[in-house]
Amino acid sequence: NAGVTQTPKFQVLKTGQSMTLQCAQDMNHEYMSWYRQDPGMGLRLIHYSVGAGITDQGEVPNGYNVSRSTTEDFPLRLLSAAPSQTSVYFCASRPPGQRGQYFGPGTRLLVL
Amino acid sequence: QQQVKQSPQSLIVQKGGIPIINCAYENTAFDYFPWYQQFPGKGPALLIAIRPDVSEKKEGRFTISFNKSAKQFSLHIMDSQPGDSATYFCAASAGGTSYGKLTFGQGTILTVHP
Predict the structure, then answer these.
(1) Which residues of chain B neighbour A35 with C-beta distances below 8 Å?
(2) How far apart are CA B37 and CA B88, in angstroms?
(3) Interface test with chain B among A32, A94, A101, by most B beta carbons within 10 Å
(4) What does the pLDDT look like over B51-96, one tens digit per residue?
(5) In this predicted model, what pLDDT tens digit does every residue of B18-41 receive, in sequence order?
(6) Which end of chain A has less Cβ packing within 10 Å, N or C?
(7) Cα(A65)–Cα(A46) distance, rounded to whole angstroms?
C-alpha cells in the first residue's frame, strides 16, 4: 500500500487564483479528512468525509470546497486563494473500526 | 475556541532525560486521546493513544498518563534520544455523531541534546 498520498508537495499561488489539492489512499478507508497546520495553532480540521458522496465541514471550512466521488480520492479546492490560506495542508484517513488517523506527507501552499 | 491546550511550546532536554508534555481538555465527550509525532517536512505520525478507562499506557519508551477528573493527560518519554527531537501534538476526539474528528493541541517542539 502507498498509504495516503498528496500532490503537489509545494505550490505558489497568486491571490484570487484557484487550485485543487489532491489526496488519495489505497487502503479502502471510508473516513478521510483535511487539516491545515499553522505555527502555534496545531492542526485544524477543514472538511471531512465518512464515505463516498458524504462530506461535512470542520472547524475552518470557509474558502474551501471538497467532494468525495470515490472511496480513494478526497480533493480539496481553494476557490479564490487568499494570503490567509498560506499554510501546510495535510490529508488523513482512518481504518474502519479504529480511531487513529494516518496522515499524508502534506502540501505546502504559499499565496502571494 | 481552543478545546485542547498543550504545554510547553518548546522543551529542551539532555539525552537520557524524561521530557513531559502536558495537555488539558474541556469537552467531556472526548473519549480518545492520541499523541502524534512530526518530523520536519513530514506528516504527523500516530505515536500512542489512550482511552479514559485507563490511567496509564506504555508503549516502549513512551507513556501516556491520564487524569479524567482533572481533564488532563501527558506524554512522558523515557531515556530520551536525539532521534526523538520532533514536534509532538496531543489530540482528542469524541465518538458517535462526532465521527471521531480530531481536535489538536498547539504542539510542543522537543529538542534532545546528545
Answers:
(1) 102, 104
(2) 5
(3) A101
(4) 999 999 999 999 999 999 999 999 999 999 999 999 999 999 998 7
(5) 999 999 999 999 999 999 999 999
(6) N
(7) 9
